Amino acid sequence: MGSCAKLRSSSWVYPTAVLSLYGFFANCKVAEPFLTPYLIGPNKNISEAVVTNYLFPIWTYSYLASLFPVFLLTDFLRHKPLIVVQGLFLVNNYVLLSFAQGLPAMTLLQVNYGVMTATEVAYFSYIYSVIPVENYQRATGYLRSAMLAGYTFGASLAQVLVSLAGIDYFYLNTISLGLVSMALLISFWLPMPQRSLFFKATEGVQSQHKRPLDVDGPEEPVVEKDEAGSGEEKMEHNSSAGWCSRENVATAGHLLWQNFRESYSSRTLVCWSLWWAMATAGYAQVFNYIQLMWNHIEPSATSSIYNGGVEATCSLVGAAAAFSVGYIKVTWAVWGELALGIFSAIATGAVFLMALTSSIWACYAGYVIFKSCYMFLITITTFQIASNLSRECYALTFGINTFVAISLQTIITFIVVDEAVLGLDIVTQFLVYGSYYTIISMLFLIRGTYTACKSHASLSQ
Question: How many CB atoms lie within 10 A of CB 42?
Answer without folding.
Answer: 10
